[in-house]
Amino acid sequence: PLSFTPLLPPPPPLHSLLRPPLVLCNDILSLKVAGDPVLTPNSVCLRLAGLSKRQMRMCVRNPDVTASALQGIQVAIHECQHQLRDQRWNCSSLEGFGKLPLHNSILNRGFRESAFSLALLAAGVAHSVASACSMGKLRGCGCEAKRRQDDDKIRLKLTQLQLQTLQKGGAGIDLTRSLPSELNGHRGSLPTNLRSAHPSALLKPLPDELSSMQDTWEWGGCSHDIRFGDRFSRDWLDSRGSPRDIHARMRIHNNRVGRQIVTDNMTRKCKCHGTSGSCQFKTCWHVSPEFRLVGSILKEKFLTAIFVNSQNKNNGVFNPRTENGRRRIMSRELVYFEKSPDFCEHDVSIDSPGTHGRICNKTSYSTDSCSSLCCGRGHNILKQTRSERCNCRFHWCCYVLCEECRHTEWVNVCK
């Protein structure tokens, strides 16, 4: 009788065995697919529970922008967990698969932690939408036409700079053969009036609208559209109309502070243009700050947040607590109106997971110390193998993929 040996798949390469396993984290939309997903109202809006009527209308009109906003929320939750990792409330209750955090109990309270979370979520939405816009991922915004126009201007200026250099070097040079390599084959991209002209014609002064290119740098490229991101974040998260109570005013105020941090920290990024790696001139554009910087600035504001009077006068004006007889300017500060609970015990009504089982630092005198985190209950010393998310990457669109790192060590764990 014939016998056969079943074919087995080849063993995985050694490097893949040594690599930590990948874990999917904080997945709101469950859109983990290869390549860019098709973002339609069915694939985005109908997956989200708890949307208001206004948010649903916005999602149906712009499902791609909404998906980008959700990615911003995921980024913000991860940053929240990083910045408050040594606090009793560490943002862990904001995270949930297939779940928006916007209706979590703590976001509907007036705590200092509520203020920080609201500002960070608003900043995350503005930051993510602005970045996606510049990458050409969103239909409602972008600058592909501007980028093509910039390319034409760059080629024209490089041509003029090179020909002027050749002219100064002496006569007898074949200008056509001496054009920079970047321009070879691009005559069709030049303005119509110059396509058929001899290269020497480019030695004439540039038109007025291109004279600014004589500077060492000029605005170009595709800037992150922070105005578009700011507007969508405001429309998506802020309540419409005049605020009706102290919490609505607090939410709108802290949302604005979070978005302002992104706007205030936009930076200029430049690219050199020229032959053979030279930098004859540069084009520059605005880019959003690293979100870690946004989180760090908001963490500082969290620690110095202003307590406000909770009188409900419905006038949109806060009454800040005076410090040393002086009122602090609040337009760029986080505000809150409820004293925070201790967050020591599990309490669903305030999204408190409690601190039982939290790892503490027995040699610390800060908020991560065992005396602070364990709330006086004491701690145990255990040898523990634990898994932690590490090396997280945010994929367009719209999920977070992290590696799972395992550690075996002696740790101090709150009773």
Automatic annotation (TrEMBL):
InterPro entries: Wnt, Wnt10, Wnt_C, Wnt_CS. One of its GO terms (molecular function) is cytokine activity. One of its GO terms (biological process) is animal organ development. It is found in: Secreted, Extracellular space, Extracellular matrix. Keywords: Developmental protein, Disulfide bond, Extracellular matrix, Glycoprotein, Lipoprotein, Secreted, Signal, Wnt signaling pathway. One of its GO terms (cellular component) is extracellular space. Its main location: secreted. PROSITE patterns: WNT1. Coiled coil: none annotated. Belongs to the Wnt family. Ligand for members of the frizzled family of seven transmembrane receptors. This is Protein Wnt.
